[in-house]
Structure formats: C-alpha cells, structure tokens
Task: structure prediction
Amino acid sequence: MVERTLLIIKPDGVRRGLIGEILRRIEAKGLRITKLKMLKLSRECAEQLYDIHRGKPFFEGLISFMTSGPIVAAVIEGDDAVNVVRLLVGPTDGRKAPPGTIRGDYALSIRENVVHAADSPERAEYEISVVFDIKCSVEE
Result:
C-alpha cells in the first residue's frame, strides 16, 4: 500500500553535512521524495510536532534542540513508507541502533540522533501538515 510519511533531518544532521547521504539512502530503497524544504522551526511549530511528549522530562530540551538550527523536512512516498523509513532510520537511541541504519551509523546520543520519522500513517499526515505549514519557520 502506497503511503506518505515525514522524515526530518534534525539540526545535528544538517550541521554535520549528512543531508545528501540520508536522502540518498531513502531514494536507494526505492522511496520517492515528493516534498523537500529546509527551515528553522519556530518554537510553536516544534511544540506542535512533539505534542505527544508534552509534560515529559525531556520535552523542553527536545524543543530547544529542534529549534537550535535549520532542519530538512521531506515527505516520502512508497509502499509501506512509514515502516520502511522507520527500519532505515533505526531505534531512537542511536547507541542501540544497529550498524547500517541511519542512527546506527551517525547518531551521537539519544537526542542528537540525526533524524525524526513519523511512527504511523495517521501521525505522518498530522506531522506533514504541521511542518509544511507556511507559518512553521522563523527567519534567521
């Protein structure tokens, strides 16, 4: 079943020059990038994106990190795109992610784990609407 999902290259991935490598892996897997943009998330947008973590001890640090520099957001399409992208990305904690996954190869910590990927088709559609909203970015 063809699905859409959201992949975000986080500020650490952008700073470290991993954009091309990450997008190459997505395309090499046969997935299509149908939308792509670089932006600096506003605090409001970051809070909407991570609303499911509001109230958790790491929420404030996550929001600060995600608004600390530019990100690259991509809408990815393909068969079972949500699951395929999550397998390519690997577990959230990069220290536990297997080699060969994006996080296994590039993550430096649980927060600086290079990428964000939606975890369900429903969440993907919500996150795409948040990130691709014209009011989502702030001017540098």
User: Anything to note?
Assistant: The first helix runs from residue 11 to 15. The two ends are 39 Å apart (CA to CA). The chain has seven helices and four strands. The helical segments are 11-15, 19-28, 43-49, 59-66, 81-89, 102-106, 121-131.
